[in-house]
């Protein structure tokens, strides 16, 4: 579970750093 959330967060940070 935590792994998937981290992977999504990383993808979002790299794809949409503004959404951080």
UniProtKB/TrEMBL annotation:
Residue ranges of the region described as Disordered: 1-20
The species this protein belongs to is: Nymphaea colorata
Source taxon at top rank = Eukaryota
Q: What is this protein called?
A: Uncharacterized protein
